[in-house]
Write a structure and sequence with these properties.
Length: about 350
């Protein structure tokens, strides 16, 4: 009899230990699918509206992502470049080569173009004729680059001078803020920045076209079979700092981020995490244009949709007509059994 009693205690301890381990392992899943609210607290109409809201936002993200991916030339550059508000400088610095330091540097441009010339020959397996044409494209692009710098030499000289003025103004602004806690140079700095951008824009636009045309012309040397077998090769955009993300990377990530968020919301899979990610993304859009203006270009739309995403995350709406229902059953069953065993 004492043996049976001792065995029963050991068996109970094993069960409790097993459920405790499962509870720990399922903790991330519990976070992903939500736990807090019982479906019985919501009416059928409320649940239906939550599902419709989730599907609507999910379709919006998915369709936006597909459009950006299929466009091929979508870029977040204008969005970041036109940022305003307290975080404007941080957003503008996300624009690839915002100050033109890479594109205006002759040696850096030659290295990038030459590296891409060699990479595309290897990528497609060019024959001698194709390799010779790739070299001709490289020589022509370098010559065009030098022509642009000479053609806009006067504007670029003022552009470089404006960059120095902004740097000096930033330093003076920081010193004043430290002394008095007041930023009195904001309007002056913004005026100088607009003039600075205007001086460099024509030349930088020409260089942008040159870089894109060079990439296109090098890829155009490949035959149809080579393109089908190896795929289109994009020219890497070097960054001023390898540790800082910019639009060269963001432009590749955002379309697939939108698609992934859209699919998660449409399927109701890991809805709280997907909805929080969507809310964070939309919140960053809102802050980039703060305070928001009225009209079609207002970021108030992103704010409203972001708040709706927080509702989806808080209610765990993927458990209603979504895959989170099944994940939720697993988590709830394990946790309920563990609590009962305790």
């Amino acid at each position: 009899m004492p043996f049976r009693v001792g065995y029963g205690k050991i068996h109970t301890l094993r069960i409790r230990t097993t459920f405790f381990v499962l509870k720990v392992l399922l903790a991330p899943l519990r976070l992903f699918v939500g736990w807090g609210i019982s479906p019985r607290l919501l009416s059928i109409l409320s649940i239906s509206m939550l599902v419709m809201l989730r599907l609507t936002i999910g379709w919006h993200f998915y369709s936006e992502g597909v459009d950006k991916r299929d466009a091929g030339n979508w870029t977040a550059t204008p969005f970041f470049a036109n940022a305003r508000g307290p975080f404007a400088d941080e957003y503008r610095e996300l624009v690839w080569d915002y100050d033109g330091s890479i594109r205006l540097d002759v040696q850096t441009t030659k290295i990038v173009f030459a590296t891409f010339r060699d990479a595309i020959k290897q990528h497609y397996g060019f024959d001698k004729r194709q390799a010779a044409n790739a070299q001709k494209n490289y020589a022509a692009a370098v010559k065009q680059h030098e022509w642009v710098l000479n053609e806009y030499a006067a504007d670029l000289e003022e552009f470089n001078f404006g960059r120095t003025r902004l740097s000096d103004l930033d330093q003076e602004q920081d010193e004043r803020r430290l002394r008095s806690g007041v930023d009195s140079l904001g309007a002056q700095r913004e005026t100088i920045r607009r003039e600075w951008i205007a001086k460099g824009k024509p030349a930088l636009d020409k260089l942008n076209s040159l870089w894109k045309n060079y990439e296109t012309e090098q890829n155009a040397l490949a035959t149809t079979v080579q393109v089908e077998e190896n795929g289109y090769l994009r020219m890497p955009r070097p960054t001023a700092s390898k540790w800082r993300i910019d639009t060269a990377t963001i432009d590749r990530i955002v379309p697939y981020f939108d698609i992934a968020i859209g699919l998660c919301l449409l399927l109701g899979c890991f809805t709280p995490v997907a909805a929080l990610a969507a809310a964070g993304f939309l919140g960053s859009v809102f802050l980039s244009q703060y305070p928001p203006a009225t009209g079609p270009g207002s970021t108030n739309y992103q704010l409203v949709e972001g708040m709706a995403c927080l509702v989806l995350a808080a209610t765990g709406s993927g458990r209603f007509a979504g895959l989170d229902y099944f994940w939720h059953l697993i988590v709830r069953r394990i946790y309920t059994r563990h609590d009962a065993a305790s």
